[in-house]
């Protein structure tokens, strides 16, 4: 991949705008139509596409919580292992007050919500019952008298 192609790909990763990225990497191109066409061509280039896909995967892995991280966080909240910082205003006398921050335990409401989400994940709360049974089914139709049957 050339240096300009890499510059294009890096610029493209900023906002996924191919036209803008092309004009930054190739400043001599002034027309949007030409930049858009060439950007599309570059985005189909195997090396550029692979590079962009690798960078997007890195960004995704660094910025996005995976399922394990979410479950660990919910468990920590449920077990009251998480605290949050809150601002508290206290009166100091003569109509004056002072603000300070303090650590606060997780509320019962938040702990219950975390437990609920974990319970849903593990199907602990279900109204449906699964039944697996082997049985014979006999259907008898009684036509009664006078039907001519």
UniProtKB/TrEMBL annotation:
Q: Which Pfam families match?
A: Terminase_2
Superkingdom of the source? Bacteria
Keyword set, alphabetical order? Viral genome packaging, Viral release from host cell
Q: Does the keyword NADP apply?
A: no
User: InterPro entries given for it?
Assistant: SPP1-like_terminase, Terminase_Gp1_N_sf, Terminase_ssu
Entries under PANTHER family matching the protein: TERMINASE SMALL SUBUNIT (PTHR41328:SF2), TERMINASE SMALL SUBUNIT-RELATED (PTHR41328)
- Know the name of this protein? Terminase small subunit
């Amino acid at each position: 991949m050339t240096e300009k192609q890499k510059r294009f790909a890096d610029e493209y990763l900023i906002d996924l705008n191919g036209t803008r990225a092309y004009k930054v990497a190739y400043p001599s191109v002034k027309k949007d139509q030409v930049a858009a066409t060439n950007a599309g061509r570059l985005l189909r280039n195997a090396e550029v596409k692979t590079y962009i896909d690798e960078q997007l995967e890195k960004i995704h892995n660094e910025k996005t919580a995976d399922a394990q991280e979410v479950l660990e966080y919910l468990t920590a909240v449920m077990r009251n292992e998480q605290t949050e910082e809150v601002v508290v205003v206290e009166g100091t006398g003569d109509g004056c007050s002072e603000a300070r921050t303090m650590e606060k335990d997780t509320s019962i409401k938040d702990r219950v919500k975390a437990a609920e989400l974990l319970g849903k994940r593990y199907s602990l709360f279900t109204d449906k019952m699964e039944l697996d049974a082997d049985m014979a089914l006999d259907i008898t139709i009684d036509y009664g008298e006078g039907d001519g049957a």
